[in-house]
Write a structure and sequence with these properties.
about 100 residues, mainly beta, 8 strands, about 60% strand, elongated
């Protein structure tokens, strides 16, 4: 039998969100893409923090991104924080009345 291959641990150096800003109407939902730098980072886990007036909700959090829904008119900041290296990326969200 061959020997087990040891893979190198690749530290997260950055996190990206696409788009970087978002304008929604109340009740509208949009997808936000998430990327890690480098692309072969070993630990791609993250958490999401929402700060603002309660005008947005985040759901369907997955490896490739998440959904943002406008709940009420206002402004919010959605921040992604990598669990490996504590790198962050921010998304500014503006929610407008229908």
């Amino acid at each position: 039998m061959g020997e087990a291959e040891t893979l190198p641990y690749v530290q997260v150096r950055g996190v990206t969100l696409t788009p970087a800003a978002l304008t929604l109407r109340v009740g509208e939902t949009a997808a936000v893409g998430l990327g890690f730098l480098p692309e072969n980072a070993s630990n791609r886990r993250y958490r999401v923090r929402v700060e603002g007036s309660g005008c947005t909700a985040v759901s369907e959090i997955g490896e490739a991104g998440f959904q943002v829904t406008g709940l009420a008119a206002g402004e919010a900041a959605v921040t992604v924080i990598s669990l490996n290296g504590q790198k962050t990326a921010a998304l500014n969200v503006s929610v407008q009345e229908e």
